[in-house]
Design brief:
Pfam families: DNA_gyraseB. The protein has 99 residues and is mainly alpha-helical. α1 packs across α2. It is built from 3 helices and 4 strands.
Length: 99
Protein backbone atom coordinates (compact mmCIF):
# COMPACT_ATOMS: atom_id res chain seq x y z
CA UNK A 1 0.00 0.00 0.00
CA UNK A 2 1.51 3.30 -1.06
CA UNK A 3 -1.38 5.59 -0.13
CA UNK A 4 -4.58 5.60 1.87
CA UNK A 5 -7.99 5.49 0.22
CA UNK A 6 -10.21 8.55 0.69
CA UNK A 7 -12.61 6.44 2.77
CA UNK A 8 -9.82 5.45 5.15
CA UNK A 9 -8.66 9.06 5.48
CA UNK A 10 -12.26 10.16 6.16
CA UNK A 11 -12.64 7.47 8.83
CA UNK A 12 -9.38 8.48 10.50
CA UNK A 13 -10.43 12.13 10.41
CA UNK A 14 -13.74 11.20 12.02
CA UNK A 15 -11.85 9.34 14.76
CA UNK A 16 -9.84 12.50 15.47
CA UNK A 17 -13.10 14.46 15.89
CA UNK A 18 -14.45 11.76 18.22
CA UNK A 19 -11.27 11.87 20.30
CA UNK A 20 -11.46 15.66 20.56
CA UNK A 21 -15.08 15.45 21.70
CA UNK A 22 -14.42 12.72 24.24
CA UNK A 23 -11.21 14.10 25.74
CA UNK A 24 -12.07 17.78 25.90
CA UNK A 25 -8.48 18.63 24.95
CA UNK A 26 -6.99 20.64 22.11
CA UNK A 27 -6.46 18.30 19.15
CA UNK A 28 -4.75 19.00 15.82
CA UNK A 29 -5.42 17.29 12.49
CA UNK A 30 -2.90 17.83 9.71
CA UNK A 31 -1.42 20.81 11.54
CA UNK A 32 -4.76 22.56 12.09
CA UNK A 33 -6.58 22.77 15.40
CA UNK A 34 -9.86 20.85 15.42
CA UNK A 35 -12.75 23.17 16.39
CA UNK A 36 -14.06 20.69 18.98
CA UNK A 37 -13.17 21.19 22.63
CA UNK A 38 -16.02 19.31 24.33
CA UNK A 39 -18.64 16.65 23.78
CA UNK A 40 -21.16 19.46 23.38
CA UNK A 41 -19.13 20.80 20.42
CA UNK A 42 -19.07 17.28 18.95
CA UNK A 43 -22.87 17.02 19.20
CA UNK A 44 -23.19 20.44 17.54
CA UNK A 45 -21.45 19.06 14.43
CA UNK A 46 -24.27 16.58 13.88
CA UNK A 47 -27.09 18.92 14.86
CA UNK A 48 -25.87 21.74 12.63
CA UNK A 49 -26.06 19.45 9.60
CA UNK A 50 -29.39 17.89 10.62
CA UNK A 51 -30.98 21.27 11.37
CA UNK A 52 -30.19 22.74 7.94
CA UNK A 53 -33.22 21.04 6.40
CA UNK A 54 -35.61 21.65 9.33
CA UNK A 55 -37.85 24.57 10.16
CA UNK A 56 -37.40 23.98 13.90
CA UNK A 57 -34.12 22.80 15.40
CA UNK A 58 -33.86 19.31 16.82
CA UNK A 59 -33.95 19.09 20.61
CA UNK A 60 -30.64 18.75 22.37
CA UNK A 61 -30.03 17.07 25.70
CA UNK A 62 -26.57 17.01 27.23
CA UNK A 63 -25.48 17.12 30.80
CA UNK A 64 -22.13 16.78 32.43
CA UNK A 65 -22.68 15.52 35.95
CA UNK A 66 -19.06 14.75 36.70
CA UNK A 67 -15.87 13.65 34.99
CA UNK A 68 -17.34 10.27 34.00
CA UNK A 69 -19.79 9.89 31.14
CA UNK A 70 -20.33 7.60 28.19
CA UNK A 71 -20.25 7.82 24.45
CA UNK A 72 -21.25 4.60 22.77
CA UNK A 73 -18.73 2.65 20.81
CA UNK A 74 -18.94 -1.03 19.85
CA UNK A 75 -15.76 -2.80 18.77
CA UNK A 76 -14.00 0.59 18.64
CA UNK A 77 -16.61 1.97 16.24
CA UNK A 78 -18.93 4.84 17.18
CA UNK A 79 -22.48 3.51 16.96
CA UNK A 80 -23.94 6.68 15.46
CA UNK A 81 -26.83 4.79 13.91
CA UNK A 82 -27.61 3.00 17.15
CA UNK A 83 -28.69 -0.59 17.27
CA UNK A 84 -30.92 -2.72 19.48
CA UNK A 85 -28.73 -2.20 22.54
CA UNK A 86 -28.75 1.57 22.00
CA UNK A 87 -32.50 1.64 21.30
CA UNK A 88 -33.19 -0.12 24.58
CA UNK A 89 -31.33 2.46 26.66
CA UNK A 90 -32.61 5.41 24.61
CA UNK A 91 -36.20 4.27 25.05
CA UNK A 92 -35.72 3.99 28.80
CA UNK A 93 -34.32 7.53 29.03
CA UNK A 94 -36.75 9.26 26.69
CA UNK A 95 -39.76 7.56 28.25
CA UNK A 96 -39.27 9.71 31.34
CA UNK A 97 -37.92 12.88 29.70
CA UNK A 98 -40.34 13.44 26.81
CA UNK A 99 -43.96 13.46 27.84
Amino acid sequence: MTELDNDVVALMSKRVLEIAGCLGKTVDLNGKQVPIKSFSDYVDLYLSVANKSRTEPLPRMTEKVNGRWEVRFVNSIATIKGGTHVDYVTNQVTKYNIM
